[in-house]
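worker-03 picked up job from queue 'complexes'. Input manifest follows; four sequence lines, order preserved.
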Amino acid sequence: MVTNNESNLGRILKQQRISVPLTLQELASIARVSSSHLGRIERGERFPSARVLRRIAKPLGFNEDELFMLAGFLSPQDGVADEPGKGYNQRQLDPSVAKILAEEPVEVQRAIIGILSILKSVARGIDKEKEEPQPLK
Amino acid sequence: MVTNNESNLGRILKQQRISVPLTLQELASIARVSSSHLGRIERGERFPSARVLRRIAKPLGFNEDELFMLAGFLSPQDGVADEPGKGYNQRQLDPSVAKILAEEPVEVQRAIIGILSILKSVARGIDKEKEEPQPLK
DNA sequence: ATTGACATTTGCCAAATGGCGAATTACAAT
DNA sequence: ATTGTAATTCGCCATTTGGCAAATGTCAAT
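worker-03 finished. Artifact:
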């Protein structure tokens, strides 16, 4: 990525690094990313991958999600929601159901969801006559 | 990276895509990622960038952070997965499964467990009636 | 079997990421 | 100023990502 139009990310990262304070080389050795690369990221000549972003997050005092949001990797409203009942489902998964299901392989779990969706569409009525005529007999 | 086969991510993505259901081309056009690339990701020949992961999240019914966790981009709340593909325990309740199921009333959740146990017992006793050819025509 | 319509995979390529070492720039303390 | 040393930037290159188009696979309907 060349001269990112709106790369405050680099400035933010540099500011944070300076204020910690760390040099590029120190951050590089802590985060295991080359200092030259970090330098290019700070001045907007390169864009950090998720892996690099993740590695420099803690040394700079960022949360990973926070930094991912700054980088535009995560949508603003889609942070990790630790708050209960925040636009999520008001219903919840029955604990015993969760426990039983958790003992099955993930493929089985997903297959179960597949069966559920079939049952729901059947219950809703035969809704796909226009496209895919079911060989009923 | 060549055929990083130990990565479940591809499997998970494919399972989810199939169960939605979507074809590679449909997902490609919805998510604006080429179908060939998506195919390679699913079979582990390529590793998705954050940008791609972000684009395919919603069409597949994942939260972005959920998917980032699966890809190893975000650490799970406890434990550290430094390499992508690790840190995914196969014997846990899949987050997307939990989410979908949590939207159903508890009676439905329990009914699903009932169906699961019936299916398992059928699968166990499948050889008791080996003489039952299904008339499939 | 043949056709046709999709779906998936493969070959090839452009662009981007990221490391290493050399060059350059601060910035001390003589 | 000049020397020394640490910090930053630059040049070059390997590796990876991701797209396009062609090849291949799949499957239902002739």
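worker-03 released lock.
Chain B has two domains: 1-92, 93-126.
Residues 1-6, 78-90, 125-137 of chain B have pLDDT under 50 and may be disordered.
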